[in-house]
Amino acid sequence: MVAPLKIGVAGLGTVGASLVTLLREQRALIAARCGRPIEVVAVTARSRAKKRGVDLKNIKWMSDPVALAKASGIDVFVELIGGGGGVAKAAIEAALSSDKSVVTANKALLAKHGVALAALAEKNRVALNYEAAVGGAIPIVKTLREGMAGNSFERIYGILNGTCNYILTRMEQEGLSFAECLKQAQALGYAEADPTFDVEGYDTAQKLAILASIAFGTKVSESAVYVEGISSIAPADLIAADELGYRIKLLGVAVKTPQGIEQRVHPTMVRKDAAIAQVMGVTNAVTIDAVGINPMTLVGPGAGGMATASAVASDIGDIARGVCGAPFGQPVAKLATVRKAPMQRHEGGYYIRLQARDKPGTAATIARRLAQQQISLESIVQRHPKGQPAAKSAKSDGSVPVILITYATSEDAVRKALAAVGRDRVISGRPQVIRIEKN
Ligand code: NDP
Ligand code: HSE
Questions:
Q1: Which of 274, 411, 310 is nearest to 351 (CA)?
Q2: Which residues pair with 428 in a beta bridge?
Q3: Which pLDDT tens digits describe the chain residue by residue (439 residues)?
Q4: Ligand nearest to the CA of 198
Q5: How far apart are CA 38 and CA 179, in angstroms?
Q6: Would residue 337 count as lying in a domain?
Q7: Residue 235 φ/ψ, nearest 5 degrees
Q8: Smallest CA separation from ligand 1 atom 42, residue
Q9: Number of domains present in the structure of the chain
Q10: Which of 135, 205, 317, 349 is the one with CA 20 to 30 A from 252?
């Protein structure tokens, strides 16, 4: 009988508690598949007294994650505490420096310190595995790094935040408020400790930076990602998108452009018939555009205890099998530095919603300003919400919603045209601008 691989687990929250349960329930199956049993021998969390609904019998309790990381009785340190620094970082550094392999689900930490941690893992010839950090149960890290090691990539894009997709889906399908949907996502264990990270797009940006590193051989850098969240999306946008044949999704997009790798996160209009548009609720999806083959989309549960624990268990299984490669697919010394995308140069179609003065000449003024920037319109609609007569949809200032869809143009041109329309005083409030992604 081969000796068990001994695991120390730091963090027994949504993911950690599910992992302990999963490893116990699937012990025989995992041992058969990985060639040796996997045994949780020690755990840590903040409160020892907390009821977690998980059986911790015969597992040593340690109060300090760093001491657990270095403990001589463990082979692998599993970090499920979270946070972009602090104790999670200190404990991972301690484990790697003690020649122990590490498994983590912590995208915040990897997006900030992934390069330094990968260098430490390389130096000590141990594994740093993080499948659960992106896409929950979807094996996207292994797909890009191992499954497609022979492919070059044009574009990787996806729904990488379950909380945002859950909120947008419920707002669209049930007409619920943003606040109500966020509260439910928190109760279901999808949201980060601070949900601002989810709804303002930072969680997606961290995951995108990790995927871009593997796909394009760049140094992981959260600060190289342009970020906009979903908090500005109004029910009026979801209704207009539906009527125009689109859905709104928070996408992370990493794409090769003549200027370099563009990494961006923003609410995006996707055509309703696109694969990514079918993805609802907490589900995540990643579409891979690789050279020479048709795009493929991987879809699966992106958050929640068991979904995430499934990816963590698979990373532990790799270590049990003796697999240990470069964390980001190439040695750290080969990864290229990447700069933040200059969004004014972004090219694509745009959805624009304006509150326009309901007077003769308004449409002509808007059209003139767009023409001055060489922007061609696919459609312009003075849109009254379905079933509402014009008089009712007008605001008290007499303005009415106007929706524009442009053909491909530059972001710079759109911003300049809208600034000029603002100076012409034919609109009230700030225009809503949502990028359209081709798929
Ligand atoms: P939780 O907040 O549910 O759990 C965090 C755990 O860490 C808790 O058990 C907490 O202890 C423990 N902890 C916090 N501070 C310390 C400390 N100083 N010392 C020891 N233990 C500490 O987080 P999740 O399980 O949701 O997330 C864990 C990681 O997984 C994060 O990196 C997250 O981003 C990532 N992740 C989460 C997903 C999800 O769906 N939840 C999906 C994908 C990744 P106590 O319980 O006593 O308070
Ligand atoms: N808060 C994250 C989400 C958890 O909602 O997708 C999974 O990383």
A1: 411
A2: 355
A3: 699 999 999 999 999 999 999 999 999 999 999 999 999 999 999 999 999 999 999 999 999 999 999 999 999 999 999 999 999 999 999 999 999 999 999 999 999 999 999 999 999 999 999 999 999 999 999 999 999 999 999 999 999 999 999 999 999 999 888 999 999 999 998 888 899 999 999 999 999 999 999 999 999 999 999 999 999 999 899 999 999 999 999 999 999 998 899 999 999 999 999 999 999 999 999 999 999 999 999 999 999 999 999 999 999 999 999 999 999 999 999 999 998 978 999 999 999 999 999 889 999 999 999 999 999 999 888 866 555 555 555 566 678 999 999 999 999 999 999 999 999 999 999 999 999 999 8
A4: 2
A5: 42
A6: no
A7: -50, -35
A8: 303
A9: 3
A10: 317
57 within a domain of the structure (yes/no)? yes
Mark whether 163 and 234 lie in a shared domain.
yes
Pocket of ligand 1 (CB under 6 A): 10-16, 44-47, 50, 65, 80-82, 87, 105-106, 132, 136, 189-190, 192-193, 303-304, 308
Q: Do 245 and 263 share a domain, yes or no?
A: yes
How far, in Å, is the centroid of ligand 1 from the Cα of 53?
15
What's the whole-model pTM score?
A: 0.95
Which ligand neighbours the alpha carbon of 13 most closely? 1
Q: What is the DSSP string of 193-238?
A: SSTHHHHTSHHHHHHHHHHHHHHH-B---GGGSEE--STT--HHHH
Please name the residues in contact with 283: beta carbons below 8 A apart, sequence gap of 6 or more.
Answer: 159, 162, 165, 299, 300, 301, 302
- If asked whether residues 94 and 184 sit together in one domain, one would say no
Counting atoms of ligand 2 from 1, which one is nearest the CA of 185? 5
- Supply the pLDDT for residue 189: 86
Torsion sign (Cα): 228, 231, 233, 238:
positive
* Cβ of residue 195 lying under 6 Å from some atom of ligand 2: no
Domain hosting residue 160, numbered range: 145-301
> Do both 88 and 184 map to the same domain?
no
Give yes or no for residue 191 CB within 6 A of ligand 2: yes
Helix or strand (DSSP H, E) at 108:
helix 107-123
Q: Phi, psi (5° rounding) for residue 214?
A: -70, -45
Specify the CATH number for the domain of residue 405: 3.30.70.260
* Same domain, residue pair 184 and 44: no
- Same domain membership, residue 111 and residue 48: yes
Do 209 and 90 share a structural domain?
no
